[in-house]
Specification:
Helix content: 25-40%
Low-confidence stretches: none
Strand order of the largest sheet: 1-2
Shape: extended
Strand content: 15-25%
Order of helices and strands: EEEEHH
Radius of gyration: 19 Å
Length: 90
């Protein structure tokens, strides 16, 4: 699996990247397989979210239920879940 994949409109990074600032420039600490000269827009996003305590508790409860289901083997293939979510958007 490659680190970056072209969607035809741009590139989607599948995992986070680690970079170091050296002499005022970002230096990525690993090889990235993109065409030479590709320009990237980097966004630092550490603003968190706007969930209140009740919403955060509901989210954490849903995550816990999901993890328990996964531990019991009650899972569906990702492709099936994504297809169902895409159908909802139509």
């Amino acid at each position: 699996m490659s680190l970056c994949e072209s969607s035809g409109r741009g590139y989607a990074v599948e995992v986070g990247l680690r970079a170091t600032v050296r002499n005022g420039r970002l230096v990525v600490d690993e090889e990235i397989k993109l065409p030479e000269g590709t320009e990237l827009d980097l966004v630092l996003d550490d603003e968190g979210d706007d969930l209140d305590e009740r919403e955060r508790a509901a989210l954490n409860a849903a995550i816990e239920i999901s993890l328990e289901q996964e531990a019991r083997g009650e899972v569906k293939p990702m492709e099936q879940v994504l297809a169902r979510l895409r159908e909802r958007r139509r």
